[in-house]
Automatic annotation (TrEMBL):
<feature type="region of interest" description="Disordered">
    <location>
        <begin position="575"/>
        <end position="596"/>
    </location>
</feature>
<protein>
    <recommendedName>
        <fullName>DNA 3'-5' helicase</fullName>
        <ecNumber>5.6.2.4</ecNumber>
    </recommendedName>
</protein>
<dbReference type="GO" id="GO:0043138">
    <property type="term" value="F:3'-5' DNA helicase activity"/>
</dbReference>
<keyword id="KW-0347">Helicase</keyword>
<dbReference type="InterPro" id="IPR014016">
    <property type="entry name" value="UvrD-like_ATP-bd"/>
</dbReference>
<keyword id="KW-0547">Nucleotide-binding</keyword>
<dbReference type="InterPro" id="IPR027417">
    <property type="entry name" value="P-loop_NTPase"/>
</dbReference>
<keyword id="KW-0067">ATP-binding</keyword>
<dbReference type="InterPro" id="IPR000212">
    <property type="entry name" value="DNA_helicase_UvrD/REP"/>
</dbReference>
<dbReference type="GO" id="GO:0005524">
    <property type="term" value="F:ATP binding"/>
</dbReference>
<dbReference type="Pfam" id="PF00580">
    <property type="entry name" value="UvrD-helicase"/>
</dbReference>
<dbReference type="GO" id="GO:0016787">
    <property type="term" value="F:hydrolase activity"/>
</dbReference>
<dbReference type="InterPro" id="IPR014017">
    <property type="entry name" value="DNA_helicase_UvrD-like_C"/>
</dbReference>
<dbReference type="Pfam" id="PF13361">
    <property type="entry name" value="UvrD_C"/>
</dbReference>
<dbReference type="GO" id="GO:0003677">
    <property type="term" value="F:DNA binding"/>
</dbReference>
<keyword id="KW-0378">Hydrolase</keyword>
<keyword id="KW-0413">Isomerase</keyword>
């Protein structure tokens, strides 16, 4: 395989020695292949560090790229230097823990014991005090901040504590309690930093400690993959490598983990270094132009909503060997039956799974979602019967009434359906848990169910966007007023972009496009992007697979209004003149396409 024109430009930029390169790799555009080209061609034999997101990715990369140094940021930090001297792995070998809770239960630090007593005086028990401390340290260790403060307590936890204190009739002490947590959090991190202390240290803790010093990565080139999901400490450590060429690659538009501290490292690279060269990967092999244009609708919305600079605007070109189409979900033609359904949250997902299994369908819930929901329902059932539950989502609730009150808040509304189900079943969830166990079998599944969040990285033949996704674009007050385009949350658009670009052949949007059109103040560029979808409806003129390669009507990087119609690629790939579906009449099963 040879690099395409976009990939060649990127390889040239790396070879020419541009010190800072940010690659905007859109969905399915060959990001991993581009990294492999760089490793095997322009960086072969050179001192290069390849940074990946997690250990699974690192293990895979080590097999595919033998001879290249491959690490996660955490493994670099673990083998790096402590700010006060010495090796982090040697200092924290006996102090490293996955979670703080277990170690803090037995910690005898005087300041910590006084903190627990102070919270007890405010009617917050020992368990709650430890979990609060764990939460604030987790938030701080994901940030770039140098001082622990109240902003590092998650909104969800704050809401749970407010409910608890209201039930105890102790709302006036909320501020005092949070001040105790902040003070203890600051003390705990200083003890974590202290080489002589016995304070436990989490993985994110030693990464934070590594980043605040003067970390050194002794290489000439650093390739940073999935850069849109970097944590600030991770990014801080990399940006301090002033002598190395920094090549960041990722898709800003798939940055959907901001809630856990992730930042877009590519934007940060440009903000820090004005000489950063922005380079797009736009030609997607995952789908044809129909699905590409559906993705472009949400890209256009994001760019307009966030006023993204022109140089950061890239749009999808669907060059995959597929006759991709967009359907409204009112019918599923033979040969285009759904192989995956994507949901906004767990409530609709669970309901669909149970209904499907009751019908006799062979349902598979992607990843470990079935197990996670089953564990939550089991924990809810225990809480309903006043039994102890160790489930992390339920650990702040002393009784079921507190959980019920939490579901009435903004942070807890996503749990409302599940909690109401527990109430209706009087806490007996054995049947639902058994059904969910049946939904964890991937073998011979009729179709796959997944939340949109968990679908990232997966791909399927024919995808249905469940109507629950429309909530992001509808007025929650249900008063007949349209929601303004400017009020749409960017994170919701990123999630919709991820969902829309999971399909190879067919995307069933189920009213999603109509919901977009109903937004008040929708920019003309979004209307123009939507109009292009008509060319790829189920009833439109059949398109040969090669037509997408020859005549894709796609916007160029400068697109801000009506799309350009004259783009023709300057490269061709060796390919069969027909798609696999056209040639054989066979659509891959959902398990063939899931990519796990």
């Amino acid at each position: 395989m040879q690099p395409n024109a976009e990939q060649r430009d990127i390889l040239d930029a790396i070879a020419e020695g541009h010190q800072h390169v940010a690659i905007r790799a859109l969905a399915g555009t060959g990001k991993s292949t581009t990294v492999a080209f760089a490793a095997q061609q322009v960086l072969a034999g050179k001192s290069t560090q390849y940074l990946v997101f997690n250990k699974k990715n690192a293990d895979e990369a080590k097999v595919k790229l033998p001879g290249m140094k491959v690490n996660t940021a955490h493994s670099l930090a673990w083998n790096g230097a402590h700010p006060d001297g010495g090796k982090i792995s040697a200092i924290y070998e006996t102090r490293r823990v996955d979670k703080l809770y277990g170690s803090l239960k037995n910690w005898r630090d005087p300041r910590f014991l006084q903190y627990l007593q102070n919270l007890k005086d405010l009617r917050l028990n020992r368990t709650t005090g430890i979990f609060l401390l764990q939460d604030i340290i987790n938030g701080f260790c994901q940030s770039a901040d140098t001082q622990v403060s109240g902003i590092h307590i998650s909104d969800s936890v704050l809401q749970k504590i407010q409910i608890k204190m209201a039930r105890l009739g102790n709302e006036d002490s909320m501020k005092e309690a949070m001040m105790e947590v902040v003070g203890m959090g600051d003390h705990l991190f200083s003890m974590m930093l202290d080489k002589r202390s016995d304070a436990p240290v989490t993985h994110d803790g030693y990464l934070k400690i590594w980043s605040v010093g003067n970390p050194r990565i002794p290489v000439d080139h650093i390739l940073f993959d999935e850069a849109q999901d970097a944590s600030m400490p991770m990014l801080q450590g990399i940006l301090k490598q002033n002598d190395a060429q920094l090549v960041f690659i990722g898709d800003t538009n798939q940055s959907i983990y901001g809630w856990r501290g992730a930042v877009d490292a590519m934007l940060e690279l440009k903000n820090r270094f004005s000489d950063t060269k922005i380079m797009p990967l736009q030609s997607s092999y995952r789908f044809g132009q129909g699905v590409a244009d559906a993705g472009n609708v949400f890209l256009t919305m994001l760019y307009e909503l966030e006023n993204i600079p022109t140089e950061f605007r890239a749009f999808l070109r669907g060059v995959g060997n597929y006759d991709s189409r967009i359907g409204d979900g009112s019918r599923y033609p033979d040969g285009r039956r759904p192989t995956a359904v994507l949901f906004r949250g767990n409530a609709a997902l669970l309901q669909a799974a149970i209904e499907g299994i009751d019908r006799g369908d062979k349902v598979f819930m992607a990843g470990d979602q079935a197990q996670e929901i089953a564990q939550f329902l089991d924990g809810c059932g225990k809480l309903f019967h006043n039994q102890f539950t160790p489930h992390p989502e339920l650990r702040y609730f002393d009784d079921f009434s507190e959980l019920k009150a939490f579901t009435e808040t903004r942070e807890g509304q996503g749990l409302k359906f599940l909690v109401n189900m527990v109430i209706q079943r009087r806490g007996c969830m054995d049947r639902e848990i058994a059904l969910l166990r049946n939904a964890s079998n991937q073998h011979n599944a009729d179709y796959v169910l997944s939340t949109m969040h968990r679908s990232k990285g997966l791909e399927f033949a024919h995808v249905v966007i469940h109507p629950s996704a429309l909530k992001a674009l509808e007025n929650a007050k249900d008063d007949g007023e349209k929601i303004r385009f400017s009020d749409v949350a960017p994170e919701d658009l990123r999630l919709l972009y991820v969902a829309a670009t999971r399909a190879h052949e067919t995307l069933y949007e189920n009213g999603l496009i109509r919901a977009v059109q109903n937004l008040d103040g929708l920019p003309s560029s979004v209307h123009a992007a939507i109009n292009r979808l008509r060319d790829y409806s189920l009833g439109a003129t059949p398109r040969a697979a090669w037509e997408n390669l020859q005549w894709p009507a796609v916007p160029d990087v400068q697109f801000t209004g009506s799309p350009a119609l004259d783009w023709v690629p300057d490269w061709q790939r060796a390919r069969s003149p027909e798609s696999p579906r056209m040639a054989t009449g066979h659509y891959p099963s959902p398990t063939e396409k899931i990519g796990l």
